[in-house]
Amino acid sequence: MTELVDRLDSVPTWLLFSSFIIGGVVLTITAEIIVHKRVTPEKRARAGGSTAAMIQVLAVFYAVLVAFLIVDEWSAFSDASSHVSAEAGELTNVYRESETFPRESGERLQAAIRDYARSAVNDDLDSVPETGGPSEETSKRLDRLFTILQDIEPETENSVFYQRAVDDLGSVVRARRARLDAASDTIPSTLLFAVLVVSIIVLAVALLLDTRERGPHLFLIGALAVVVSLNLALIVSLDRPFGGAVHVSDQPLRTGLLAPAGR
């Protein structure tokens, strides 16, 4: 299940949702045609009452399960986005504080900050989804930031800004650690499998509903397949905040830190 989700992560968002919807509707309608040929109207009528009761129970369970997953994933997605913004904000603070240092030292620190931001965007954001761990290159650039800051001997009037820079750089480390943790926070394969199984059962039971009119029955089954497929596509797309079809934006790092390089 994990390998399947990994493959789907590389699919564009529009194609992912379209494929799920089209595939879900086609499979459901095909299954309905088969059921219609094999299950007589008399059997549908006899099973109508129990089928309606069962679909109500399954619908409630399905709705609670899907809502829990989507809310949990969106919360993790929002947290991951907040961590990126926090990291960019703290780096920007260090960048501004470095402007009060001696010119040569300040420029070295600013260049190192831009190098770190560039590595974070190009290497670190994709590292956990691809390798399961942080980027070694980004870690080296973060260590270099501390080394440069330690080598600076601030003048007396700049000591307050130096202390703030030290504190803010510590906050960068914490924000990065939180970002990396968020990148590895995915839904367990067993839970994804459970959602898939429940979705199939809901559709299978709905096929046996006795609606008496075939046209409205096909429409209801098709509409239910669209809803179920949309839910599955949304769950898959949000499963990996930095590697999924829908992923956290790196704009805070690009706009706040890589832009100054052009000044």
Question: What would you say this structure looks like, in words?
Answer:
It is built from 9 helices and no strands. It is mainly alpha-helical and 263 residues long. It has a domain at 64-188: de novo design (two linked rop proteins) (Up-down Bundle). The longest helix has 58 residues, at 41-98. The model has no long low-confidence stretch (mean pLDDT 86).
Briefly, what is this?
The chain is mostly helical and 263 residues long.
CATH class of the domain at 64-188: Mainly Alpha
Instruction: Name the beta content range.
Output: under 5%
Instruction: Give the overall shape.
Output: rod-shaped
* CATH architectural designation of the domain at 64-188: Up-down Bundle
User: What is the H-and-E element order?
Assistant: HHHHHHHHH
- Any low-confidence stretches, pLDDT <50, length ≥5? none
Strand tally: 0
Structural class estimated from helices and strands? mainly alpha
Oligomer: single chain
Secondary-structure map:
Blueprint: H1 2-9, H2 13-38, H3 41-98, H4 103-131, H5 136-151, H6 159-183, H7 189-207, H8 214-238, H9 251-258
